[in-house]
Amino acid sequence: MKKKDLISITDYSKEDYLRILELAADFEKNPNQKLLEGKVVASLFFEPSTRTRLSFETAINRLGGRIIGFSDAGSSSVSKGETLHDTTRMVSNYVDLIVMRHPLEGSSRYAAEVADVPVINAGDGANQHPTQTLLDMYSILKTQGTLDNINIFMIGDLKYGRTVHSLLMAMSQFENPIFNFIAPDELAMPEEYKLFLKEKGIRYFEHSEINENINHAEIIYMTRVQKERFMDPIEYEKVKNVYILRNNMLANTKPNMRILHPLPRVNEIHPDVDSNEKAYYFEQARNGVFTRQAIIAHILNLK
Amino acid sequence: MPDSLKKKLKLKVSAINNGTVIDHIPSENLFKVISILGLQNVKTQITFGANFESEKLGSKAIIKLSDVFFEDDEINKISLIARNAKLNIIRDYEVVEKRVVEVPDKVIGIVKCFNPKCITNNEEITTYFNVISKNPLDLKCKYCEKITHEDQMVIK
Fold this sequence. Notes:
heterodimer; A: alpha/beta; four-stranded parallel sheet; 9 helices; B: mainly beta; 2 domains; five-stranded antiparallel sheet; 3 helices
């Protein structure tokens, strides 16, 4: 049987998404299921990412699996000049599954070709981070009860933010989504994604600031506007405070509206939002563990 | 003097008995075409020339290969750098078939991914692109998923 990997969100069909989300709900009800007993998983983090690594390692531990690996390239054979090819071939001999984070784009697709065991992409540079997208979808499903007819406002860095691009692609598989983009000109949603929506006949709107339009939202998806993305530091100074979500903006938003953020946040969500019941980003991170358990179970056919 | 004879007298590269003539190659890409097709390994007679006058290209190169015939897959590799190349298949000094090159659906090797952060530019990996547009050329990297546009294309 051909091994299953998870490299790019577009590798999976709507049926795969729904199957994983169903498993995630099951793991949320009953997180400790020893389905990985006797199995070894490699956690290869060629660049540090504490949140993602801990989330995966928690998921593996709750499934009763054992973990080998490293948390940054400096403490691995990479520091001696070993190629990704050789590291992957070697580790692939030892384990049942590889979870990989790497700063270069396309690295996990390549590793999946080289490895005999399944590979899960835990982020390859600015390219893909599919487990984040699945946990975002699980958070939407959990808070809205459906993935159809969802009005999503994406705010912040829509140009470089891989999470918003992947979420857009995934949510476009469901019925009647509406997308609203709020970003500075420098960080606007790239044309290719708008073209993709147009071709699929999916409605989208663009706004230059956060205003009462957000009262139509089911989901507000915030991302960080990073200073280093701007050619001109003055431009950054001009917009840095425009895309901050504050509690007083939320008064007339829908009761079921929830705010998501892939984290870490800097200042784009004011701390006064945290106590609002519509703030969902910390629960979202918690959902990551269940979703990753589900992805592992799906890929290894454990359930 | 009949035209055909005039034409033959004007030939600057000698005619071949059997084989393939690749015509209308941009002069500057002659050696890349030779390399992509691996002609350095051909043991039969090869003649080639560059900087011939061409109405279409201004300057063109031509390659004549004795007893060498190409499959479509093989010859289409050169379409990326010799878009207007024409093949004349020669049998017994006569052109028996003319073919044009076509841009293939997949480009394997040959082209570098434009993205410096792509794994293929950092480790010894054969590049692999799906052709998402043929004119102008847009190549989507299987690995980093970025699109290399025609004006960014660099031959490996």
